[in-house]
Amino acid sequence: xxxxxxxxxxxxxxxxxxxxxxxxxxxxxxxxxxxxxxxxxxxxxxxxxxxxxxxxxxxxxxxxxxxxxxxxxxxxxxxxxxxxxxxxxxxxxxxxxxxxxxxxxxxxxxxxxxxxxxxxxxxxxxxxxxxxxxxxxxxxxxxxxxxxxxxxx
Length: 153
Description:
- The structure is a single chain.
- By secondary structure, this protein is an alpha+beta fold.
- The chain has a single domain, classed as SMI1/KNR4-like.
- It is 35% helix and 18% strand.
- The two termini are 27 Å apart.
């Protein structure tokens, strides 16, 4: 199991983390969005809730999540308001600051839990095949932190 708090704090002292979300809060968001979170993402929300720092801003859950990083709001915006509409089988967890999103695949099947990149300027719009990033949220976040640590050296 990944210690998400330790992992995120290892890449910068400018990282702000949430206090985590209860299992009932996590289940309420799953019901509200009509998705099931993969185990690694569920663990992150339970332990940390959300994260904000240089080069990593993960939308999330919890009583202390800043309003601009509420997962439900971001997901609904990407699914309903922002062209091209993102499929509801992709859960946006981190915006890259340019309107593109790193997403967790929440479709039941072999790709469930993988992390992909959704390009909002892709020429195929809604028909695009998002770019594969990692097999799961924990691996993706570890790779992200390693990349930041390399940049900081």
